[in-house]
Each structure stands twice: as C-alpha cells, then as structure tokens.
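Backbone-to-sequence.
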C-alpha cells in the first residue's frame, strides 16, 4: 500500500480550507483518510495552519510521500 500525505478540501464554496491527511495513493481526494494530521487555511490576512508534526514525521519515516503543496506548507 502506497501512502501519500496530501490536502483534502473542506468548507463552503469560495473558502480555502484544507485538511492535511495521510491516505492511500489510489483513493479519491476527498475519500476516507487513514489519519487526519492537521489543517491549513489561506485567508486575506495571511495563512493559518495547525499540523501535528510528530504524526507527520511518523508517516514520512514509514515511507509516505508528501505532495508538492504539502512539502511547501511544512517548510513555511
């Protein structure tokens, strides 16, 4: 099973709210995740985020590949 860390979209139309999840690569974007790792929100005032870094590091150690967008969010 190939695990990937990516964003799933939540919220109403026109809002940029995302959840950071660990999920199987072949599953849909908004399908059932293996684990919820945090959230990310882009607003006019800036970026708000809350990420469980311990669990993120755990999944990366186990071989999960973060998407390009998730890698950028983690570094910022």
């Amino acid at each position: 099973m190939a695990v990937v860390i990516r964003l799933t979209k939540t919220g109403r139309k026109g809002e940029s709210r995302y959840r950071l999840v660990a999920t199987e690569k072949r599953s849909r974007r908004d399908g059932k995740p293996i684990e919820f790792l945090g959230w990310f929100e882009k607003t006019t005032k800036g970026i708000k985020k809350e990420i469980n870094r311990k669990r993120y590091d755990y999944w990366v150690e186990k071989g999960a590949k973060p998407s390009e967008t998730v890698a950028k969010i983690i570094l910022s």
